[in-house]
Amino acid sequence: AQSVTQPDIHITVSEGASLELRCNYSYGATPYLFWYVQSPGQGLQLLLKYFSGDTLVQGIKGFEAEFKRSQSSFNLRKPSVHWSDAAEYFCAVGAVNTGNQFYFGTGTSLTVIP
Amino acid sequence: DADVTQTPRNRITKTGKRIMLECSQTKGHDRMYWYRQDPGLGLRLIYYSFDVKDINKGEISDGYSVSRQAQAKFSLSLESAIPNQTALYFCATSDLGGSGRDEQFFGPGTRLTVL
Hints:
The complex is a heterodimer.
Chain A: E1 3-5, E2 10-14, E3 19-21, E4 24-26, E5 32-38, E6 44-50, E7 56-58, E8 64-68, E9 73-78, E10 87-95, E11 101-104, E12 108-113
Parallel strand pairs in A: 2-12
Antiparallel strand pairs in A: 1-4, 3-9, 5-6, 5-10, 7-8, 8-9, 10-11, 10-12
Chain B: E1 4-7, E2 10-13, E3 19-25, E4 31-38, E5 42-51, E6 54-57, E7 65-70, E8 73-78, E9 87-94, E10 105-106, E11 110-114
């Protein structure tokens, strides 16, 4: 069965520091992977997605993610965090055979301190 | 105007009441989805629809029903609300042609409280 694990429930980083949010997936075929961000009181916005090809994917707002098949991981990174990055981050895997059904992780809440 | 809209944005109701949450989209997408979000559980799929005549149960459909009135409209109903249905509900859409590739576009959410 498909599943997504985000091991870190909450992360606190200082503004300007680097960030890595972890995501591990379980899926029987080539995964389609996504990272979404949810700002307080808002819906989900797509940061980036991976389908195939280059395993390092660039997204919006300076985020990137690296797909590592051997580790079943799709970790999100940012070199220098801004206070506006404080939000909830969700990793998701898209299921090919069930009509684009998404399986979401439980989310990682990011706090940015001055 | 937003591409995916949800009404109401907030609703407080009592146990046993019937509630309808509505979703409309202007993206022209065929596929629509209803999720609920609970703290620590992420988003879980309730129902999804490929088109007006095709509706499918998701992971947690018990206690919910849906109606796809048109390509652009997808409503979620709670026939008899109970307190553990208190959650944040999201509607989402995606295009037809991707087999899992297409991103989903989310509405702003409806916060439902059942007393």
